Structure prediction request, 159 residues.
Amino acid sequence: MIPGVLGVSLLGLALGAACSSPDPCRASHLRLLRRESARYVGAWTVTRGDTLTLPQLGDRFQLATVRLDTAPVAVGATCRLRGAIGFREPRAETLAVTWTGGPEALLYGWPADLGPFGGLGLVVAGDSLRGALLFDSRLGITVRPGLTAQFVASRALAR
Prediction:
């Protein structure tokens, strides 16, 4: 009788595994992600920042705002959080992005039509958010070594 009980148990486990959702934002992972990202959450206003011009594109880029939220977003097999970045140049607009936190935060989702950018690298320093533009070499535009656009942001005042 033991093999029959074992067979039913294994069948139950197999069915449970087949019916479970492969959600990367399961509660345990999401709690950890939110805890690691907590210091970055909020609205940030860029107070000082480089304006970057790439000769190949001709457009100048200047960041105005960064909003980082804790709403989960499944991106393939990864769980990220929802956010947005606002620009002053080349045109005033706000773009939806995803991000993850930790000792450093990484912001993803920069549209390819705006340039060869992979996103932003962020770190909280005191009461400021410091960041730098990350280039994506897969998009075919070569930039000279050391070229970057950095910024400093402070918490936005509640209105």
